[in-house]
Amino acid sequence: MKPKVKELLVESGCEHNETRTKACNSATPGATTGGCAFEGAQIALFPYADAAHLVHGPLTCLGTSWETRLTGTSWEGRDLTQMGFTTGIGINDVVFGGEEKLHEAIDAIMERYSPQAVFVYATCVTALIGDDLDQVCKQAAEKHGVPMVPVHAAGFVGSKNLGSRLAGEAVLNHLVGTREPESTTEFDINLLGEYNVTGDMWQYTHLLEELGIRVLSTLSGDGRIADIRTAHRAKLNVIVCAKSLVSLTRKMKERYDIPWVSLSFYGLRDTSDGLLTICRALGDPDLIARCEALIAREEAALAEKLAPYRELFQGKKAVLNTGGNKSWSIASALQDLGIEVVATSVRKATEEDKEKARKYLGEKGVLMTEPATQQAGVIDETGADLLLAGGRSMYTAIKKKISFIDVNQEKKKSYGAYNGLLNLAEDLKNALESPVFENVAKEAPWETQP
Amino acid sequence: MGDAALNESVIKFEKPVQVNPIRLTQPMGAALAFLGVDRCMPLMHGAIGCTSFTKVFFTRHFAEPIAIQTTAVSDVTAILDGGDHNITEAVKNITTKVSPALIGLHTTGLTETKGDDIRRVASKVDFPLVHVNTPDYEGAYESGWALATKAMIDQLVEPTKVTRSNKLVLLPPVNLTPIEVEKVKEFIEGFGFEVHALPDLSTSLDGHLGQKQAALSSGGIDIDTIRQLADAATVVTVGTSMEGCAAALQKKNPAILHKHFPHLQGLRATDNLVAFLLKQSGRDLPPASVVRWRQRLQDSLLDTHFALGQTRFLLTGEPDQLAGQAAALQEGGGRVAEVIAAAPSPVLETIEKARVRIGDLEDAEDLAAEYDLILGNTHCESLAHRLGKKVLLRGAPNWEEVGNQLKCDLLYEGGCHFLCEVANKASEV
Fold it and tell me: Quick check: A14 and A24 in contact, CB under 8 A?
C-alpha cells in the first residue's frame, strides 16, 4: 500500500501550507544542496538497532551513507543501525527485475542476523523498474514471521523532509497497533522524531523517568520494534524537533485519539518549556507541580555549573550562519550561555523559523538573507568575536581574525537538554581561547611590509 | 556483481546481499575526477540524493567544502523528460550564480535506467561541458574516475601533430591522494620533464587555506592546459583502471608514447619508473635526493621486515590500490593472507600468494581467523574493534582521521613511511 505523496504534501497540520504550497517538495536543477526522500526515510528509521535496514538499489544509496550517524542504542543484540545491507543491484537486475534477489537477500539476513523486523527501502532505480516491494515484503513476513516493512521513499519523490513523512507512514501502516503492551500507565508517551544522535535523548529521558513519565515507544532513537508496535496505547505523542512527522501524529489522533505536542530540547529555555509542555498535555496537576520543581532544581544546578562560562562569555558577540531551525535554536542556546547573538542567517528558513529568529534576536538583530556576502560586513559592524558557520565560511573568520566554529561538522558529543549546554559551553570556550585563529591569520614572511 | 570475466583464482561475489559494503560507485568516481579540474562544476544527472550523499561523503573525507550540483530529477521528470529540461535548467541555474570554466555532466543509475541521451542534450548546451555515462549499477569507483578522465580527453583535447619531447601527461588512478599526485609529479619533474596530471587533485583537494568559496573547485588542472595536452611526447598511466585512457590521448596525436605502471608502491615499482625516466630523459643518474631515498627505503625494508614477516594482512579496497599495497608489503616479507576487493579488475589476478576475492566486510568477519592487521577504509575501524584486530586506515572514505590528503605511500619516500607505519601498527600490543 503506497502512501499518497500528494496527500502528504498538503498536510493540514503544517502551518506554512497556507502560504507556501510547494515549500515541502521543490528542488531546482543546478541549485540544490539538500538530501533526498530516501535519506529522510533512512534518518527516521535507521536508529532502530534491532531491525535490519535493507536498501534495494544500486550501491550509491547505501555505500555512501552507512555508519554515518552516531545514533546511540542500548539494545543488547548486535547494533544493526551501524551496519549496511543492500542488494547492490547490477545491470542484470535492472533488465530482468530485482525481486528475486530481494527475496534471497531477506532470507540471508533473517538466517544470519535474526532481526526483529526488516525495513525494505525502495530507491529510484528499483522504483522505476517497478519491483513490487509490497508483495515481496508480504510474502517474506509470512515466511519469517516478523514484520517486513516496505518503505516507499525513493530519492526522486522529493526532499529529505518528505522521506521522513513517508517513513512515518510506513511505521503507521505496518507496525503501530500490531501488538499490545504488557502494561500501560497514565503517563505513557511516544517520542517521535528523536533519533538520539550523539545520545541527545539520553540527556533528558532520565528526567522524564524521574517525573514518572514512561517512554512507551520511540520513532526511533534507541527504539525497539516491539515497542513501536504498541504505540497506539500512548496517552501523548511528543514530536521532538521534527515537523516532518506531523502527518503521522495527526493520523494517530484520528485513529487512536492520541493528542500531540511539538517541542525541542535544545538549550535551557526550550528544555524547560519542553518538559512543562509534556506535563501540561498529560494534564495532571501534581505532575505539573513536580515538573516545575524539577525544572527549578535543574536550572539552578546548571546555572551554578555555567557561572564560570557566563563570566567568560560576558560581552561576547556571535554571528550565526546556518540553516533551518538551527537559525534560532542555536541562537537560543548561545543566549542561554550569555552570548549576544548579533546576526543569524535566514536564507533557507521558513516563515515560522524567521519569526522565531526575530523573537530571539530582538529588534537590533540582523537577519541575513544573503549570508555569504553579508557576513563579513556584519562582523565589522557589530564587532563580533565568534562566527558559527559551515566550513566554507572559515576563510571569512580567518580574514576577520575572529574565532570560528564549524556548526555543520559532525558533532561527536551531545548539545541536547541541560547537560548538553555544558558541552556546548566547553566547545565555545575552547574556540574563543584558542590561539589558532590568530596564528593562522598571521602574514607570511614574504607578505610582511618592511 | 559479476561485471568482468575473472581468473579462476579470484573468488567472485555471489551473495544476494552486500553486508557492510566497501564498494563505491561510478558517479562518485566521476564527480571526484571533475574536482581535479580548475573551476569545474561536477553536475550529477540524477535525483538530488545521489549528489547530496556524494557531497557529504567527500566533504567528510577531505575535510573541505566540495562543489557539486545536481540536475534534481524528480519522479515526474523521470517519466516526462528525456533529461533536456533538467540538464538545461541546471546549466542555466549554475551559470547565473557562478562562472565555471567547465561543467562535468555525468549520469546515475536513475537516468540511465530511464534512458536519457545526454550526448544529444549536451550538444544543445551552449557552455563548455563534458558528458559521460556513469550508471551506478555498472562498474565502480575506479571506472567512474577513468571514464570521466577519458571523456575529458575525448571531448576537450585538441588534436595535433606537434610533439614536445619533455612534456609528459600523467593519468593517475582514483585511489591516489592529492599529495601522492603531487609527489609523483615532482618526482618525474626531477628528471627534467614538464608534467601535467589529469585529473589533478594535488592543487584542488590538498587541503590548503585559500579564499575558497567552494562554489567551484579551486585548483586542479585548468581547462586550457587540458586542451593542449596532445603535444606531450609521453603519457604515463598509473593503475590498471587508467591504462585504457592513454589510447584516447594517442588518438589526438599518434606520436605520443604510452608507458603503463600498474602501481607505484614499493622498491621494484619505483625502480621501474626510474628506469623508464632515465631512458626517456637520456640521463645517467636521477636527482641526488632520489638516490638517497632509495637507500632509505632499502634500510626501511630491513628495519621493518621482522614485524612484517610476523604479520598476516587483510587488504580491503579498490583493486589498483590493493595491488600496490600487496607488492609493497610482500617486498618486505609481509604475509598478505586475504584480499577483499571492492570491485572486479584484471589487476587482481596479478596479486600473488594471497587469497583474493570480490567482497564486503561481512566476508572480512568470516575470515577473521586468517589475519592480524587490516588495511582499509573507515568502516574497518569498527570491524577491527569488533574482532580485536589492528587497523591501518587507507582508502575512501576515512571519516575517522584528518589528513587523508597528506598521506603518501608511493615511490621510495612514501614507501619508507608506509612500511614504518605498518610495522609500528603491527607491533602495537
Answer: yes
Q: Is B102 in a helix, a strand, or coil?
A: strand
Number of domains in chain A: 3
pLDDT of residue B2: 41
Boundary residue ending a domain (B91, B107, B139) = B139
Averaged pLDDT of chain A: 91
CA distance B138 to chain A (A): 6
ipTM for the predicted complex comes to 0.95
Are residues B135 and B147 part of one domain?
A: no
Quote the minimal CA–CA distance from A342 to chain B in Å: 23
pLDDT tens, position by position, B207-245: 988 766 567 888 999 999 999 999 999 999 999 999 999
pLDDT over 50 at A31, yes or no:
yes
Q: Do B137 and A61 lie within an 8 Å CB cutoff?
A: no
At which of B121, B139, B157 does a domain end?
B139
Number of domains in chain B: 2
Say which of A87, A154, A394 has its CB closest to residue B17. Answer: A87
CB B361 within 8 A of CB B141: no
Instruction: Write out the residue range of the structural domain in which residue A97 sits.
Output: 5-174
Q: What is the pLDDT of residue A390?
A: 80
B109 → chain A, closest CA residue: A125
What confidence tier does A340 reach under pLDDT thresholds 50, 70, 90? very high
Taking the CA of residue A158 and the nearest CA in chain B, the distance in Å comes to 7
Q: Between chains, do A63 and B25 touch, taking CB under 8 Å as contact?
A: yes
Model pLDDT, residue B191: 98
Option in A29, A60, A82 nearest B53 (CB): A60
Q: Do A68 and B56 touch (CB under 8 A)?
A: yes
In the sheet with B232-238, reading across from the earlier edge strand, the strands are B194-197, B164-171, B232-238, B257-261
Residue that has been written with the C-alpha cell 585511489 in this structure: B175
Q: What is the mean pLDDT of residues B298-315?
A: 97
Per-residue pLDDT band for B255 (boundaries 50, 70, 90) equals very high
Name the residue with higher pLDDT: B269 or A346: B269
Cell numbers 610582511 label which residue? Answer: A448
pLDDT of residue B6: 46
Tell me: do A284 and A316 sit in the same domain.
no
B101 is in which domain, residue-wise? 26-139
Task: Tell me the average pLDDT across A427-444.
Answer: 92
Interface contact flag, B137 A125, Cβ < 8 Å? yes
Reply yes or no on whether the pLDDT at A98 is more than 80: yes
* Positions of E strands within B186-302: 194-197, 232-238, 257-261
Give the nearest partner residue to A38 out of B49, B69, B212, using CB atoms.
Answer: B49
Interface test with A, best of B51, B108, B114, B137 (most A CBs within 10 A): B137
- In single-letter form, the type of residue at position B284 comes to D
Q: Which residues of B touch A394 (CB under 8 A)?
A: 209
Asked if A264 and A415 count as a contact pair (C-beta separation under 8 A), the reply is: no
Rounded to 5 degrees, φ, ψ at A261 are -130, 155
Q: Do B172 and B131 sit in the same domain of this protein?
A: no
Distance CA A76, CA A3 (A): 33
What pLDDT is recorded for position B8?
61
Do the Cβ atoms of A155 and A60 come closer than 8 Å? no
CATH of the domain at B126: 3.40.50.1980
CATH number at A192 reads 3.40.50.12380
For residue A372, which residues of chain B lie inside 8 Å, CB to CB? 213
Q: Does B81 touch chain A (CB under 8 A)?
A: no
**Cα(B342)–Cα(B379) distance, rounded to whole angstroms?**
13
Q: For residue A90, list chain B residues with Cβ-Cβ distance below 8 A.
A: 1-3, 137-138
**Does B335 map to a domain?**
yes
